[in-house]
Amino acid sequence: MRLRRWSELIRQIAGISLASLAGWASSPADQARQHARDVERALRSAQRVLHAWLAQADPLTLLLPDRLPGGRGTEGRPYHRVYTPHNSGADLYPYLILTARITDPEIYHGRMLEMLRNEVRYTTVLDSLPADFDLEKHVPAQPSIFGAAEYAKDGLLAVTELLGRTPWFERMRELTRDMMRHCSVKTRWGPLPGTGAEINGDALQVLVRLAAMDRDLSWRQWARGIADAYVEEILPRSNGLPVEEWDFATQSGSKRCRLRDHGNEAIVGLTLLYALEAEEQTPYARRYEPAIRKMLDQVLASANPDGFLYESIDVDSLRPVRDTLSDNWGYVYGAVYAFFQSTGDPSYREATLKVLRALPKYLGHNWGSTSFDELADSIEGALYLLAREPVQEAFQWVEKETQRLMSLQRPDGFIERWYGEGNYNRTLLLYVMWKTQGILPDPWTPGLELGAARTNDGLIVFVNRPARVRFDFPRHRLVIGFRKNYARLNEFPEWYAVEPNWLYRLRDARGVEQVRLGSELVAGIQLPEGLTTVEPLGPPPYAQKASPVRTEH
Length: 553
What we know:
The chain is α+β, with helices and mostly antiparallel strands. Helix content is 49%, strand content 11%. Among the domains are: 56-182; 184-357, Glycosyltransferase, CATH 1.50.10. The strands form 5 sheets. The protein has a 5-stranded antiparallel sheet with strand order 10-11-16-13-14. Strands 1, 2, 3 and 4 form a 4-stranded antiparallel sheet that branches. β13 (503-508) and β14 form a beta hairpin. The longest helix has 27 residues, at 28-54. The chain is globular.
């Protein structure tokens, strides 16, 4: 069995991925056709994960256990079925929601919403705060601020970034409000969710989105309270870096800054809040800017010669605690790039380009574990950055590593039988959106091939049979409320976003032309089999000669 799996891996890397890579030297039409084949395989794989996990749901509540017998984390331990908001809710359920939205709309509108109802019904124990839920005894545990923060940031936020104001957005909003109301860590800047960089960074990332989406000033006030605690106390006493844990009573903390998961969240959250404040030119932006700059400079100074970051560093010496590189390097560089987007300082863009150009040297790299999860996170981070800076050699790395990732799926649809398999689907959906330039099938069915490639100003889109598709739009502006499309954790990058009120000319393989509004493309349009070119006609006005504006007397 092991020999067969290695043979399959070699065949896939040598065959399928090389066919994909051949597209870099081919025409946009050939690239679109190859991308369509890649998308079909990725969505088929993600759909198998969806159905494998739904078959394991609790019959009464429909909630998902965080691990299955024999899965990662169960080795040598008594097995117990439990739903956890920080694992099942944050890392598994949300990406099954998104997979169902694309591949199984009936499941999305039915089973997925029923799971949300039951999550609220069975796990909320203090206002809307969730708890772990024993799936054998059917009883909840104690309310968890950490579970709320993780569920909101890694789960509900990602669903909102792609789908907008759905019932999951409403769950995120009330969950976050109650999380902040029940904070118990007392500081002179107000209560905080916790003492660690992870939980406070989780909260910051959600609060910044809510501050941009919602007129309620509480979101901004809570976010500023967390940021003030870091900018005024933690960072100055920790060589400019957010340490893993901090004691506000003694004004001291650990001497480590974690640059991978469970620590880098504060770096991302602080930078994103600064970007929002800088957009609006508030006094907070001027006050935060030196601290954010020093924080990012210290992180970059700790990197290896290629720019890659270590898992954890000593805050005084900036030396790695151990030599393992962080699989979340792309998450942190997203903050670096967002700072460039806010300040215009080219050194932060150059730092990002440096690490992307070095990626081919890390083909097949072991990011600290033999698990698929670290590989998936590394691919994800690269795609966040490549949507802004299209470094071709880095795209080729993503292609090869995604083929390696998909080769790890088992015949039963699982990969390692634990909640992290939601992250597997997340990475495949990010890969799909690159290959389609953000166009999604409505819906996808097995065998449907949809791919796209850029031309000078537009796209060439290929489908192997007539299909209804939906184009992407500037979600950062029209859904989240950012003026700039900041690189950010748990986003789904915009590759080719159509403006709702622009006109676009479509020409199919038969030569038939039509002009459509961007809003029509976003709502959904039927494409014929074969190639279709999409060309923007530019912004209005479109009339050759504008008419005088009539004034009513």
